[in-house]
Amino acid sequence: xxxxxxADTHFNDPRILxxxxxxxxxxxxxxxxxxxSWNAAVGTDDEVYHLxxxxxxxxxxxxxxLDRLNGRKHLVPGNNDDDATAALAGWASVAPYREIEWxxxxxxxxxxxxxxxxxxxxxxxxxxxxxxxxxxPMTRQFDVGVDAFPFRPVxxxxxxxxxxxxxxx
Length: 169
Hints:
Layout: E1 3-6, H1 15-19, H2 27-41, E2 47-50, H3 59-68, E3 72-75, H4 83-86, E4 91-94, E5 98-102, E6 105-109, E7 125-128, E8 141-143, E9 154-155, H5 156-161
Parallel strand pairs: 1-2, 2-3, 3-4, 6-7, 7-8
Antiparallel strand pairs: 1-9, 5-6
């Protein structure tokens, strides 16, 4: 089993193509590509923490979409997640803030980037969404949204490697 993190999928949200200039011809292509990328990365026994802004639309369409995605899914709601999204039966859990320990690290999960978090001075990291890859990185803080990573959920290992310096030439 692996644990993955993602945010800001904005499925079925026509604004996202314009606001974030995502490289898809239309919303159907966007949603299909994100579902395919998710399912290529995440196995059925894996866990995924979605850090908010999952999808727009009615509860039935969001539920159908959620059921198409691999893994046991947890939601940390964002500003675009309504009560109907949080109430979908496909979520294993829903909480506005989470702290987990994985691979020997304490990890804080919130939709919003935090200025400070518990145990940050002891190596804990903060994973967030909301900023769509536009915030200046802080030490031990990572935007895990699909705009910051390759339009799919990512592992903690991938997240940590993303900021390592390239070796000198």
